[in-house]
Amino acid sequence: MKPLEGIRVLEVAMYGFVPSAGAVLAEWGADVIKVEHAVTGDPQRGLRQTGMLRVEGDPNPNIEHANRGKRSLGLDMSISEGKEVLHELARRSDVFLTSFLPGARRKFGIDLEDIRAVNPSIIYARGSALGPRGEEATKGGYDMTAFWCRAGTAATITPMGYQGRSIRRGRRTATPSPAPTWPVVSRQPCSNGNGPVNRRLSTYRCWAVGCGRWDTRWR
Fold first, then answer.
1. Which letter does DSSP use for residue 185 in this model?
2. Which has the closest alpha carbon to 73: 132, 124, 32, 134?
3. Which of 55, 125, 132, 183 makes a 20 to 30 Å CA pair with 206?
4. How far apart are CA 196 and CA 67, in angstroms?
5. Are 117 and 174 in contact (CB under 8 A)?
6. Which region ranges are annotated with the description Disordered (predicted)?
């Protein structure tokens, strides 16, 4: 028996970051239902080339890797009927995962308050490129823009003298950007301290935590 058997996860996410979390939960035994665009599906399905590698035919590892072990549902969340189906699925689920930005979550009725209105005890987890707080909270991004570039990894592999590099204290560094102030994960307890769980995560913070730049204590 796997540790998450009997747990249902509802995933409304695209590309690789949050769907990868759903794939891990599926491997641990959870029943993961992935909601995709009713016509085009997850845009990752159209990714056929990475660097020099081009994928011909199916299966396409670019979509399969982060979505293994899941069930998939095409749903139009922009119409009332689609939202009703989504909320019914949320009512029957234990965990909700999303990578949608704040504006899209409000538009489709999948923000924290919307999902908690139909299932007060659900675990709500959202992932984004730059975190949920600050002036860049509404901006999207991918690993190349948030994980590699903004967090400094790209700078460490860029040759000396390349435009955009700067020298500081004898080391090669990129021109720094302000560090975000949001936590890697947080929870919003009810007044008695035992409320449902709300998780927030970003690709930028994942890199920083992995390098020991910020701590991950509950705040």
1. S
2. 32
3. 55
4. 26
5. no
6. 167-191
49-58 burial: b if 16+ Cβ within 10 Å, else e: eeeeeeeeee
CB 147 within 8 A of CB 205: no
Separation of alpha carbons 152 and 146, rounded Å: 9
- 96 CB-contact burial (10 Å; exposed 0-12 / middle 13-18 / buried 19+): buried
Q: Which two three-digit tokens encode residue 181?
A: 């102030």
Q: Is the peptide bond before 59 cis (omega within 30 degrees of 0)?
A: yes
d(CA 182, CA 57): 42
Instruction: Give the model confidence (pLDDT) of 78-116 as tens digits.
Output: 999 999 999 999 999 999 999 999 999 999 999 999 999
pLDDT by residue (tens digit) across 14-73? 998 899 999 999 999 999 999 999 998 998 888 888 777 788 888 888 888 899 999 999
User: Residue 44 in contact with residue 66, Cβ under 8 Å?
Assistant: yes
